[in-house]
Amino acid sequence: IDFQANQWHPVYLSLSRITKSKQIASSVHWSASGDILSDVQQPPLDLDKVFPIPGKLKQNVIDPYSAVMRQLDHIATTGKCAGSYEIYDGLRRFEMQFDTVGDIDLLADRPYGFDGTALHCQIIVLPKGGHRIESSWHKKPDKDRQLSVFFGRFPQGLVLPVRVEIEAPIGTGVARLNMIRSNIPGMASAR
User: Fold this and answer.
1) Please, what's the largest Cα pairwise distance for the chain?
2) How many CA atoms lie within 13 A of 106 on its CB side?
3) Among 9, 22, 30, 50, which is 20 to 30 Å from 70 by CA?
4) Using an 8 Å Cβ cutoff, are 164 and 154 in contact?
5) CA-to-CA distance for 34 and 67, rounded, in angstroms?
6) CA-to-CA distance for 154 and 80, rounded, in angstroms?
């Protein structure tokens, strides 16, 4: 990604994974004006298994990293989560919606966890194409496609996600920023 005209913009995104012993890869190049210059999937999308992504859905899109960086900048400037981003990662097309829930005092529930005031935001992911047809995920109500992200504020205006929670039928999945191992500028090392 690149920072130009006070905003993050995609330049190149490459993804690769192995599913059922088969490698699946994609790469997308964007121009400085935001148009997609090249778009390659290997193997090509199997339209018997995934929803198509028409060319018009690949216009005015950014990569997921640019969306997150734009949202971090927005939080640093306004103190709130807000906005919607049209995302294309080479294999899937979706929309990410950010909304503010409010400030919350997080207590470290692990020795390495964040302890302090965080901005609680909800992110809803809306599928547009490239998702598996057999999956029921695209049919679920918005509340079942959302996650909670808690953003901590650090010295020098730095904003970072310190905790992510996602509800699932088997319970709540939680990811935490390791405050002991993280080397956050302006913070005393806890090592």
Assistant:
1) 54
2) 26
3) 50
4) no
5) 13
6) 15
> Where do we find the tokens 């995104």?
13
Q: Which helix (H) or strand (E) holds 64?
A: helix 64-78
pLDDT grade, residue 188 (50/70/90)?
Answer: low
Higher pLDDT, 180 or 54: 54
Cis, bond preceding 43 (omega within 30 deg of 0): yes
Q: Give the pLDDT of residue 50.
A: 93
Neighbours of 149 (CB within 10 A): 23
What secondary structure letter does DSSP report for 140?
S
- The mean pLDDT of the chain is 91
Alpha-carbon gap, residue 63 to 8, rounded angstroms: 10
pLDDT score, position 173: 92
Q: What tens digit of pLDDT does each residue of 3-16 get?
A: 888 889 999 999 99
d(C-alpha 92, C-alpha 148), whole Å: 22
Q: Can you give the pTM of this predicted structure?
A: 0.85
Give the Cα separation of 191 and 189 in Å (integer).
6
**Whole-angstrom distance, CA of residue 109 vs CA of residue 9:** 36
Bridge partners (DSSP) of residue 185 are: none
